[in-house]
UniProtKB/TrEMBL annotation:
Species, as recorded: Aegilops tauschii subsp. strangulata (Goatgrass)
Keyword list, A-Z: Apoplast, Secreted
Subcellular location: Secreted, Extracellular space, Apoplast
InterPro entries: Dirigent
Taxonomy, superkingdom: Eukaryota
Role noted for this protein: Dirigent proteins impart stereoselectivity on the phenoxy radical-coupling reaction, yielding optically active lignans from two molecules of coniferyl alcohol in the biosynthesis of lignans, flavonolignans, and alkaloids and thus plays a central role in plant secondary metabolism.
One Pfam family, short name: Dirigent
One term under GO cellular component: apoplast
Signal peptide interval: none
Family, similarity comment: Belongs to the plant dirigent protein family.
UniProt name for this protein: Dirigent protein
Subunit details: Homodimer.
Length: 103
C-alpha cells in the first residue's frame, strides 16, 4: 500500500519536503511502451538544449502489474545536466485532490 508524508518547513509551500513511500516512477524511453518523447534535438556544437516531454506512470509497486496511482507529466531539458519540470497528478480517489508541481 502506497503512503506519503509531507514535511512542512519554515519557508514557502514550494519548499516542503515530499516523502513518498512505496510509490515507483517508471520512465520508458524506448520500445513499444514508450512514455517520453524527444521534441527538440540538442545543439550540434554544444550538446545543450535537448528537450523531452514525459507522461511517466507512478505505481504502487515495482512490478509490471502494479496499479498506476498517478502520472508525472512534464518535460526535461539538457543544460549540462538534465533539468526536470513536471506535475504529479493523482488519479486514485484517495489521492485525487493532490496535484504537485516541481520546478
Amino acid at each position: 500500500m502506497a503512503n506519503f508524508q509531507i514535511t512542512p518547513r519554515a519557508a514557502f509551500v514550494e519548499s516542503n519536503e515530499l516523502n513518498f513511500r512505496s510509490l515507483y516512477l517508471f520512465h520508458t524511453p524506448l520500445g513499444s511502451n514508450q512514455n517520453q518523447s524527444g521534441i527538440i534535438d540538442s545543439n550540434v556544437t554544444t550538446g545543450l538544449g535537448a528537450t523531452v516531454v514525459n507522461n511517466w506512470p507512478i505505481c504502487d509497486g515495482p512490478s509490471p502489474g502494479a496499479t498506476v496511482v498517478a502520472r508525472a507529466q512534464g518535460l526535461h531539458i539538457y543544460a549540462g545536466n538534465w533539468q526536470n519540470t513536471f506535475s504529479i497528478t493523482f488519479g486514485v480517489e484517495r489521492y485525487v485532490h493532490i496535484c504537485i508541481r516541481t520546478y
